[in-house]
Amino acid sequence: MRLEYDKNIPDPKNGDLLISEPFLNDPNFDRTVILVCENGADGTFGLVINKTTDLLLDEVMNETIDFNGRLNIGGPVEQNTLHYIHRISMPIEGAIPLGNGIYWSGDYEQIKALILNGQVSENDIKFYLGYSGWSLGQLRVELDQQSWFVKPNATARQIFDMDEDALWKSILHEMGGKYKVFSNYPADPRLN
């Protein structure tokens, strides 16, 4: 039996997930899941949601924030920038809704105050160093080359509650059918 990839993969919308195909030949995106934050006339901006670091927020900021959540690698572009995704229920000025109670960005000082006051926990916000970006048309080429699968409508559970190390496999498994089969492909097919 030969597995077939999707033909005519739709363009992702804000709030969708990009899942790398099992053998994507790019170490920056090996078995990654990316939350699409903006896909528009200027290109596509997203954050890898399953690559964590051992760094804490205090270690990269010039201030003490007392936040125990580990930082994540959002992608290979501008890793000296900080980005965040959250599910804070109160309105955050400038936060961009991505659907299903997920927000990207927003007023950092407001978020910092909520963290310092104990109103936001590590389970409600994730911080990312760098981002993943594509110029206009670049992601479409990669989709046509079948480098990515698109999973519509990310959920807060997928982003905030699932184990990052198992996320790639778990989402493909949830998608079912041939994606479930892809989820079981070994990282190195020579070991099969």
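Above is the first protein from milestone M3; the second protein from the same milestone is given next.
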Amino acid sequence: MKYIEALRKFGKNYNPFIHIKKEEIVEEEQNFIVIAARAPYAKNHLLIIPKRQVYLLKELNEIEKNEMWKLIERWTTKLQKKHKDVNLLLRDWLVEWNIGKSINHLHFHLIPDCAIWLEGKSNPDDRKFFSDQEYIENTEKIKKEFLAK
């Protein structure tokens, strides 16, 4: 079954992370679990998921954040022994269905050997490289937008 078909079958507000069975868990800690992706982007694609349902990274307490980083580091190291590259993808906030996010539950993807493609481009090398001036202008826009008081 295709992923989109599974989403339609379960419904928009379905949270598969609260229905995980023990035999589906790769590793379990006090506050997090590691599972294989049910709809993987690549071979050995893993998810690191907090046990309690939270939506935002900032909702995790310090104990949870420390455990999360230890798991990310541990599994990135393990994956790097068999793969050339590992991408870490944070999925938080609420599903808007516009960027492929489909679960209202904070989670992290560890995706080995998977290129990041740009919308409308056939090759990631086709992306724009800013000139020095464009780069400074873009940096200033980001500062103004996100650091303005």
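Note on the second protein: The first helix runs from residue 3 to 10.
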